[in-house]
Fold this protein.
Amino acid sequence: MDPVGEIYDDLPLPPYVSAEDVVFALRAISVHTPEQRPDGQRCRKDQAAHPCRLHRWGRHVLQKRGLTGGQIQTLLTGGTVVLR
Ligand SMILES: [Zn+2]
């Protein structure tokens, strides 16, 4: 496997993650979903290797907001999470 996915410095993160940033990050993650290709997983939206830049940015924003992977998954599937 190639060592992608750990580079977060390509898109700047907001200093404080607002509710708007959370909505935007969720939208980015739900649009930039992986698609199985012969050469591996690629972004459905921009064909970059998954997770692409925007997908990683969205995840990182939500993590910075204090959301766990499980909570992110709940939000992506239409569930409700009480934000701290
Ligand atoms: Zn993408």
In short: The first helix runs from residue 19 to 31. The mean pLDDT is 87.
